[in-house]
Amino acid sequence: MTAPLPALSGALVREVRAETVIAAPPAVVWQVLTDFAAYPEWNPFILSIEGKPWVGTCLSVEIRPPGRKTMRFRPRVLRVAKDHELRWIGRVLIAGVFDGEHRFTITPEGDGSRFVQAEIFTGLLVPAVDLTGTFRATHLGFLLMNRALRERVERSALGKPS
């Protein structure tokens, strides 16, 4: 789902969000989510992540939204809460031009977990980017990744090969 959010400090804000329920505990979801080396085996959206999920570090992330060219960027990790949340921020040029704060959250739900992937985009270029269909492609990428994550986690939770 994509929707405009209220303006913050005069900048347009857009959130892209997708969620799924996974039949496995948060620790199992977290293990697959943070095994960056395995992303090329299963992830159709985030093709690779290099670096460690440690607060303050920069990652090298390569994504390919459906129907779009591959993009590489270097976000800074903002928050790591084991088995619960990983959050980073990426910027184009300088702060305020086009920023994206990406978060993955995992919460217990019944015998499983609710996984949410979301990004809040802010900055002067948000209106122009919105016109290109990028947010729609990003949302589709989130949906595809969430489904692939669910399938991989549930296979591993059942002891089946990934």
Please name the defining characteristics of this protein.
single chain, 162 residues, alpha+beta, Alpha-D-Glucose-1,6-Bisphosphate, Chain A, domain 4
Structure description:
It is a single chain. The protein has 162 residues and is α+β, with helices and mostly antiparallel strands. The chain has a single domain (8-157), classed as START domain (Alpha-D-Glucose-1,6-Bisphosphate, Chain A, domain 4). Helices cover 26% and strands 42% of the residues. It has four helices and nine strands. The strands form two sheets. The protein has a six-stranded antiparallel β-sheet. The longest helix has 24 residues, at 134-157. Residues 4-11 have low confidence and may be disordered.
- The CATH architecture: 2-Layer Sandwich
Give the C-level CATH assignment: Alpha Beta
Runs in which pLDDT lies below 50 for 5 or more consecutive residues are 4-11
The name of the CATH superfamily reads: START domain
CATH topology: Alpha-D-Glucose-1,6-Bisphosphate, Chain A, domain 4
Mass-distribution shape? globular
The helix count comes to: 4
Tally of separate domains = 1
- Percent of sequence in beta strands: 35-45%
